[in-house]
Amino acid sequence: MGPSRPLAAVLALALAGPAAAGCHHDDTAAAQASAVALVAQVPLTRAGFPPDAAAAKAQLARLKVEWGRNWQTYKREDFGRYWSDETDAVGGRNGCDTRDDVLRRDLKELRVGDRNPCVVLSGVLHDPYTGKELPYTYRRASQIQTDHVVALGAAWRGGAYAWTPQRRLEYANDLDVLLAVDKQTNQDKGSRTADKWRPPRRAYWCEYARRYTGIKTEYGLSVTAPEKLALQDMLASCTA
Q: How far apart are CA 136 and CA 100, in angstroms?
């Protein structure tokens, strides 16, 4: 999953500064430049994700259809209490916080730290769910949250209840599962499935259903009958 150990070593040197043992100013500058280059090289999505409309329709047809299970046992902490880089999911073990990875991928007009290229200092999100333009500035209150497209509670009901803790941690930090979105819209969505919630912006229905179906397929999650119908309807909005 990318050059995790070299990246971690280079980031450590870059953050240590000139006082690091045996490290001169030129060495530190070179380490910082190397860190920027390595962070830029690490993929922030799987090849071929999200699937195109035809592939998503074929994947949806193969998903297991059943009612959700064990909803009453779901606890958020079963997916890990905090963001974790210690997984083999997309973006894992790259030395950067999961949320920063999402921001670096989804924001435009991006500015990252000179010493730590993982940290996003500022940018603008074109929210896929609403179309709003949302500014972001490091350490200031933001209207941006990180959404699990197939919510953790929905994943639990679709089969994640039977996973190992590490598999659930991987899911919670998989960049293909995550999107930077409008905070209020994310809160309105909660853990609702596709039959109970759709993005307010209809123009995003096609990509939302493609992502949603791709996630369900990648992780072997089931769908309910109403959920499948809703995804079929959204995929029907895709243009050739």
A: 12
Same domain, 102 and 208: yes
Residue 228 tokens read as 């499948």
Q: Which is nearest to 189 in space by CA: 178, 198, 202, 180?
A: 198
Q: What domain range is 7 assigned to?
A: 1-42
Q: What is the pLDDT of residues 189-206, one digit of tens each?
A: 999 999 999 999 999 999
- Structurally, the chain folds into a number of domains equal to 2
- Separation CA 213–CA 209 (nearest Å): 6
The number of beta carbons lying within 10 Å of the beta carbon of residue 77 is 9
CA 131 to chain centre: 19
**In this structure, are 104 and 137 located in the same domain?**
yes
For residue 240, pLDDT over 80 is answered with no
Q: Is residue 240 part of a domain?
A: no
Instruction: List the strands of the sheet with 120-126, edge to edge.
Output: 108-112, 120-126, 133-137
Are residue 131 and residue 217 in the same domain, yes or no? yes
* Structure tokens belonging to residue 80: 């890990």
